[in-house]
Write a structure and sequence with these properties.
The structure is a single chain. Helix content is about 45%, strand content about 15%. It is an alpha/beta fold. It folds into two domains: about 230 residues, Rossmann fold (3-Layer(aba) Sandwich); about 210 residues, 3-Layer(aba) Sandwich (Rossmann fold), CATH 3.40.50. The strands form two sheets. Strands 3-4-2-1-5-6-7-8 form an eight-stranded mixed sheet, sandwiched between helices. α10 packs across α15. It starts with a strand and ends with a helix. The relative contact order is 0.11. Pfam families: Glyco_transf_20.
Length: about 450
């Protein structure tokens, strides 16, 4: 097999495997296990200046190649343009986008530095697979350095309608950069159609033909086993005792404004206000590890959520019942799997999401004899694939409350009928199948 070179903003820690690994590392695990492979990208560390040459670490057939970023480059490339401009634009939130020419220059400089460090490491027959919005220009920068390898790109987040993307300054340059890739993948057909239209409008009709949807998945069987084992652990027994037989609603998200957490909390508050019979019968646990905590918008979001949690608990708590439990520190993956298996409702309501693997993980974690119900935003990329979910508009707190009440009252037979086709879909649309389909297209 040809060597696979994976280029990502952040290279996973070689020490993290299996249950502790990040989402992209888990999704690509099968691909890197089957062939010689290299992970290339940022080390996660900053220095006075961006390194010119990567640090190399080889473990078996896998090589880790990482660059430290200079403090200024990190601020402009990562905090500035990637997260301050691109992220909100791609999530349809132009009003939150903050554009700076200096940040944009830093974004392009880091992509050029990545390409300059990677190009000498490439073999003639390598396949290069770049991931996500941090690396739009990476393929074009490699081509400028004479790289003739097959280049693939996958966007894990949504791509908005062309008129929205055109609102971002220099968007035409970014589309021209994407045209350097041989295969361009997105999560859904809607996202792929938006990007095709944007490329065609800028005169890149041939590149538009190389855009396809490759919906990402999970290893459903492995996650199901993780959940089964977690239920037997002592920490889960302690957790079950703490909720005292009440039904559990579970939410698991990064602390990010795209996840719709304020609206979700308001929806849960509406459940308690409109359906008083649910009070003291349900406990909602929201796990939301802090993300980009040094960005002002995220700091404001955290303050808003803290206030909402305090208000809901202040209005409805009893001496022996806390309605909303809220955690902003990471929880180990096996523990999350156990929480999901125990939860009567999985609450996944992003305002916009590329796919949302938490929804698929919740489905995979369920006990087939007594599955829970998934309440899912119609704007998540997973929505077209998980037809047994209760779909909601995340901007309507009353709709969330109504779906939660319906889920809590749903009889076992209906829960099973909804869950079974979703479980089959999650098993079939696995991470392995996603990798195989994309790499087959990349091999040409």
């Amino acid at each position: 097999m040809k060597r696979l070179v994976i280029v990502a903003n952040r290279v996973p820690d070689p020490k993290e495997r299996g249950a502790t690994a990040g989402g992209l590392a888990v999704a690509l695990q099968d691909a890197v296990n089957r062939r010689d492979a290299m992970w290339f990208g940022w080390s996660g560390k900053t220095a006075e200046a961006t390194a010119a040459e990567p640090s190399l670490l080889r473990q078996g057939r896998l090589t880790y190649a990482t660059l430290d970023l200079g403090d200024s480059d990190y601020r402009r490339y990562y905090q500035g343009f990637s997260n301050g401009s691109l992220w909100p634009t791609l999530h349809y939130r132009l009003g939150l986008a903050q554009f700076s020419r200096d940040d944009y220059a830093g974004y392009r400089e880091v992509n050029a530095a990545f390409a300059g460090a990677l190009a000498p490491l490439l073999r003639p027959d390598d396949m290069v697979w770049a991931h996500d919005f941090h690396l739009f220009p990476m393929g074009a920068e490699l081509r400028r350095r004479g790289s003739r390898q097959r280049l693939g790109f996958f966007l894990h987040v949504p791509f908005p309608p062309p008129a929205v993307f055109a609102g971002l300054p220099r968007s035409a340059e970014l589309l021209a950069d994407l045209a350097a890739y041989d295969v361009i993948g997105l999560q859904t057909e809607d996202d792929a159609a938006h990007l095709r239209a944007a490329l065609a409008a800028e005169g890149h009709a041939e590149a538009a033909e190389r855009v396809s949807a490759f919906p990402i998945g999970i290893d459903a069987d492995a996650f199901a086993k993780l959940a089964e084992r977690a239920v037997e652990k002592q920490e889960m027994a302690r957790f079950r005792r703490s909720i005292a037989g009440r039904a559990l609603v579970i939410g698991v998200d990064r602390l990010d404004y795209s996840k719709g957490l304020p609206q979700r909390f308001s929806g849960y508050g509406q459940l308690l206000a409109r359906y008083p019979e649910q009070r003291s019968r349900v406990t909602y646990l929201q796990v939301a590890p802090v993300s980009r905590g040094d960005v002002a918008q995220y700091q404001a979001l955290r303050r808003e959520l803290d206030e909402l949690v305090g208000r809901i608990n202040g209005d409805y708590a009893e001496p022996d019942w806390v309605p909303l439990r809220y955690m902003t520190r990471p929880v180990p993956r096996p523990t999350l799997a156990g929480f999901m298996r125990h939860a009567r409702v999985g609450l996944v309501t992003p305002l916009r999401d590329g796919m949302n693997l938490v929804a698929k993980e919740y489905v995979a974690a369920q006990d087939p004899a007594d599955p829970g119900t998934l309440v899912l935003s119609r704007f998540a990329g997973a929505a077209p694939y998980l037809k047994g979910a209760l779909l909601v508009n995340p901007l309507d707190p009353d709709e969330i409350a109504e779906a939660l009440d319906q889920a809590m009252a749903m009889p076992l037979k209906e829960r099973q009928e909804r869950w079974e086709p979703m479980a089959a879909e999650v098993r079939e649309g696995s991470a392995r199948n996603w990798c195989q389909k994309f790499l087959a297209a990349l091999e040409g």
